[in-house]
Design a protein that fits this description.
6 helices; mainly alpha; single chain
């Protein structure tokens, strides 16, 4: 994202009206227009806006959900088992390690991405997660 866009986002996030915004630009760089500024001056304005409370947020998820229903089920079961306490670490790396135990047990130099599993590879993992989820639910009820 270019620095002008970041500055405009920061202006909106900080709720600056036009006069206050122009005064900030002039105070930091001596210029009241973004077009007249250099890249270094843009960075100085962004730094000042961060000092005033601006926080740059990433937009949305970095990983889109899979189109394969069995992969979505695998992720949903993993999250459910974590919520129920059957799994201590509900992170993505932990899911990768769990899947690796099923797909490439004992092979150290293979990375297993759950989103790239075939149905035949994912099926035993899904069944194991279903059993873990059922045990966790029974433990909570009993």
């Amino acid at each position: 994202m270019n620095s002008k866009a970041v500055i405009n986002i920061a202006k909106g996030q900080l709720g600056l009206d036009e006069d206050t915004y122009r005064a900030l630009l002039a105070r930091v760089t001596g210029k009241d227009s973004l077009r007249a500024m250099t890249d270094a001056e843009h960075r100085a304005v962004i730094a000042e806006m961060k000092r005033l409370g601006f926080r740059l947020r990433s937009g949305g998820k970095s990983i889109p959900p899979s189109v394969k229903p069995y992969i979505r089920l695998l992720h949903a079961l993993w999250k459910s088992c974590h919520r129920l306490g059957a799994i201590e670490d509900g992170s993505r790396p932990a899911l990768r390690a769990f899947c690796k135990r099923f797909v490439a047990y004992g092979v150290d130099d293979v990375a297993v991405d759950p989103d790239l599993l075939s149905y035949d590879q994912a099926h035993p993992i899904i069944e194991a997660l279903k059993k873990m989820e059922a045990r966790a639910k029974a433990a909570q009820e009993g």
